[in-house]
């Protein structure tokens, strides 16, 4: 199954959709626009945000003292979740401008809403796809409202299959089969052993929908492995300065790294090729060999293994592939040593 996000198709045999995410790494509209522009200039396909409007961080955090652990270049740190969410808040006018700006630059706009009213708002400003964040994958009423928009739905696959199954069924029940399931490792950043790349294949086996990979590891290498495993979409965080000591910066790409990231993805895609190549020869005839008389063969003599040699090219006489066939055949003429054998020489 293929899903359309903006003007891009997502699915088997389509170019991997590259979505880059400022997430919590901006603190105002100007920084957000700077990152949108960098993503577009790098040749990526989409930009992804979480749509927080003023007051949403207060509303979503019933307890404001919850901490999140993360790593920086200087070691382990902690930050209030409330502070990380508060940085994402932009006015509705700012969000409208950001969506408009992204589309002017030919980027699809993907976002994760936080409240029912947010869903109505992002539909109104014409986003291209909606992501259900990890904390909402069990929020059945919320998912139903998202499914009813008929926009593509991207499911964060960090929860167990039971919850993903339920979310998929809610979308299907509401007539929305535009679903992408993302394998999203946990951690800020995730440890290598926690990436679990094989989960991509497990999700592919279970569902008919495209499967993507959301990377929470430092650098870019895990994304390239994900493409090799068949990921149809990549989501990677970006930052203006990844040394900033906040929750998602250390695992992000800086803006001057994005272009190489996109180039590497496309290079690997081109190298993936077509498995049907195994159904045809890729060896030129000049590299193959034909059967040659290893010694003088007299008329009436039977051909034995001892009488055969193999020389290039492969189209100068009987192919070595027919070696079994000519054994014990009889020479119809004298065949001098070094002669490329022809069928009319044998009976």
Task: Detail the topology: elements first, then pairings.
Blueprint: E1 3-5, E2 8-10, E3 17-21, H1 29-41, E4 46-50, H2 56-60, E5 67-72, E6 75-80, H3 81-86, H4 92-104, E7 108-112, H5 116-124, E8 129-132, H6 140-148, E9 153-156, H7 161-173, E10 179-183, H8 198-206, E11 211-215, H9 221-228, E12 233-239, E13 253-254, H10 258-272, E14 290-293, E15 308-311, H11 323-326
Parallel strand pairs: 3-4, 3-12, 4-7, 7-8, 8-9, 9-10, 10-11, 11-12, 12-13
Antiparallel strand pairs: 1-2, 5-6, 14-15
Helix pairs in contact: 1-4, 6-7, 9-10
Q: Low-confidence parts lasting 5 or more residues at pLDDT below 50?
A: none
Structural class: alpha/beta
Largest sheet: 8 strands, parallel, barrel
- CA gyration radius, whole angstroms: 30 Å
Number of strands: 15
The percent range for strand residues is 15-25%
Tell me, what is the CATH class of the largest domain? Alpha Beta
Which architecture of the largest domain would the CATH scheme give at its second level? Alpha-Beta Barrel
Order of helices and strands: EEEHEHEEHHEHEHEHEHEHEEHEEH
Task: Report the principal-axis shape.
Answer: elongated
Number of domains: 2
- What's the mean pLDDT score? 92
Please, how many helices?
11
CATH superfamily of the largest domain: Aldolase class I
Q: Distance between termini? A: 56 Å
CATH fold title of the largest domain: TIM Barrel
Q: How do the strands line up in the largest sheet? A: 3-4-7-8-9-10-11-12
Helix content: 25-40%
């Amino acid at each position: 199954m293929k899903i359309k996000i903006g003007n891009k198709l997502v699915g088997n045999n389509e170019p991997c959709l590259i979505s880059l995410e400022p997430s919590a790494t901006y603190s105002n509209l100007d920084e957000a626009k700077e990152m949108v522009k960098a993503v577009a200039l790098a040749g990526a396909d989409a930009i992804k945000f979480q749509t927080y409007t003023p007051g949403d961080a207060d509303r979503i955090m019933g307890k404001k003292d919850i901490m999140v652990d993360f790593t920086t270049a200087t070691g382990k740190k902690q930050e209030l979740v409330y502070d990380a969410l508060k940085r994402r808040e932009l006015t509705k006018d700012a969000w409208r401008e950001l969506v408009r700006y992204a589309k002017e630059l030919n980027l699809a706009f993907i976002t994760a809403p936080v409240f029912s009213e947010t869903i109505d708002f992002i539909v109104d400003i014409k986003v291209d796809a909606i992501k259900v964040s990890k904390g909402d994958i069990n929020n059945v009423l919320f998912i139903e409202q998202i499914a009813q928009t008929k926009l593509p739905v991207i499911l964060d696959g960090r929860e167990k299959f039971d919850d993903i199954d339920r979310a998929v069924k809610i979308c299907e029940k509401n007539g929305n089969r535009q679903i992408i399931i993302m394998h999203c490792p946990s951690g800020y950043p995730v440890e290598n052993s926690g990436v679990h790349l094989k989960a991509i294949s497990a999700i592919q086996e279970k569902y008919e929908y495209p499967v993507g990979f959301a990377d929470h590891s430092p650098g870019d290498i895990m994304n390239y492995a994900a493409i090799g495993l068949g990921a149809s979409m990549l989501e990677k965080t970006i930052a203006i300065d990844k040394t900033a000591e906040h929750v998602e910066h250390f695992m992000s790409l800086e803006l001057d790294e994005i272009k190489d990231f996109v180039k590497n993805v496309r290079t690997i895609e081109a190298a993936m090729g077509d498995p049907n190549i195994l159904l045809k020869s890729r060896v030129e005839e000049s590299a193959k060999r034909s059967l040659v008389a290893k010694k003088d063969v007299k008329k009436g003599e039977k051909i034995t293994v001892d009488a055969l040699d193999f020389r290039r090219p492969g189209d100068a006489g009987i192919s070595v592939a027919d070696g079994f066939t000519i054994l014990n055949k009889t020479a119809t003429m004298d065949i001098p040593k070094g002669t490329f054998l022809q069928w009319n020489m044998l009976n």
